[in-house]
Amino acid sequence: MDEPRVACFLRDRGKILLIRDGDGIDPDIDRWSSLINNADDDPDEAAHAAIRERTVDDAISLVRAGKPFTVEMDQETRWRIHPYLFDCDSRTVETNDETTEFEWTSPAEIHRRETIPNLWKSYDRVAPTIETIREDGDHGSAWLSVRALEVLRDRAGVLATTDGDEADGWDDLAALARDLRMTRPSMTAIENRVNRAMAEVNARTPAAIEESARQGIQRALDADSRAASEAAARLSGTVLTLSRSGTVLEALREATVERVIVAESRPAREGVGVAETLASDDGFRVTLAVDAAAAHVLAEHAVDSVLVGADTILPDGSVMNKVGTRAVAIAAAREEVPVHAVAAGDKIATDGDARFELGDPEAVYDGDADIEVLNPTFDRTPADVITVVTEDGALSETMIGEYAEQLVGLAAWDD
């Protein structure tokens, strides 16, 4: 009979947790693995139990569960593996008497170490892919751009460790990079950050691309954090926001803010999750508002500023973001409330084309009447009612245009 097990991968800032349990003597026992736990009854509960045993449980969130598979551990033992991936914001790990060491590292290290059987297969079933990036309706472009770099890094790492360091891996990875750039055309950060990783390689080899993508992940995360700090310095009192942006959340947590009003952001209502997240933090008074009330709230409540994210910043200073941003910004201008869009500079587009996405019509109406549904995912907010704040501070229209010109050069790797 197959013995059910969960294999839980924790991810923080692009790295995963590998842990080694054993006696420090027998190499057949001392092998690297993820967090493993028995799963006799409910795999989901077993996964969370494994997390609670070794980590700060309230610092993690489930990303996805992968398709289970069976692996032969030895001649007498078969495991039915249920893979899971969790994001976390703490690297605190509780060890026990069997733990010899642990490390936060790149997933490609699985290929370079003695691991339990099929550990890479477990990771591969929950790792980010072109499909998960394309279909993700919950996360912003900063988060998804890091996932795109992880896809590139992981694939390069596999080639570097299984096929050597030959330059003929370049064509495969270049094709992957082109595909990644097109996963979400409206999210410029994905294109710019993939371009940067490919443009800054020091050799056309898988190992060089793996290292460039790894550095790109850290650069992207650092830029997002610095942008959040720049925005936080401009916030106080009551702030209105909408949709979901990790950079916005980071800025709000860093700022001296008394109250946050969150528009629910229909039809996906991702603002509800943002409100719940903020409500779980100490020191926040959180109000959830229906989208249609945003202009009324700005007129009748003492709102000090509006803070939103940005999926793309166009060279003229206008901002592409979750639909509803334009209406909020124009209403805020009427009430003389400043509006800031916080984003890393990599979200600046190299051309002025506004790329809109349409959401699923059934998210708005799934009835039988002959009704045409308009469900745009993004809208465009003009530059005169919004201020762009990046890791370099508030940018003028001229500065945004100059930044766009610099980013054009990153695409030259594909010429």
UniProtKB/TrEMBL annotation:
<comment type="similarity">
    <text>Belongs to the eIF-2B alpha/beta/delta subunits family.</text>
</comment>
<dbReference type="InterPro" id="IPR042529">
    <property type="entry name" value="IF_2B-like_C"/>
</dbReference>
<protein>
    <submittedName>
        <fullName>Initiation factor 2B</fullName>
    </submittedName>
</protein>
<dbReference type="GO" id="GO:0019509">
    <property type="term" value="P:L-methionine salvage from methylthioadenosine"/>
</dbReference>
<keyword id="KW-0648">Protein biosynthesis</keyword>
<dbReference type="InterPro" id="IPR000649">
    <property type="entry name" value="IF-2B-related"/>
</dbReference>
<dbReference type="GO" id="GO:0046523">
    <property type="term" value="F:S-methyl-5-thioribose-1-phosphate isomerase activity"/>
</dbReference>
<dbReference type="InterPro" id="IPR037171">
    <property type="entry name" value="NagB/RpiA_transferase-like"/>
</dbReference>
<dbReference type="InterPro" id="IPR015797">
    <property type="entry name" value="NUDIX_hydrolase-like_dom_sf"/>
</dbReference>
<dbReference type="Pfam" id="PF01008">
    <property type="entry name" value="IF-2B"/>
</dbReference>
<dbReference type="GO" id="GO:0003743">
    <property type="term" value="F:translation initiation factor activity"/>
</dbReference>
<keyword id="KW-0396">Initiation factor</keyword>
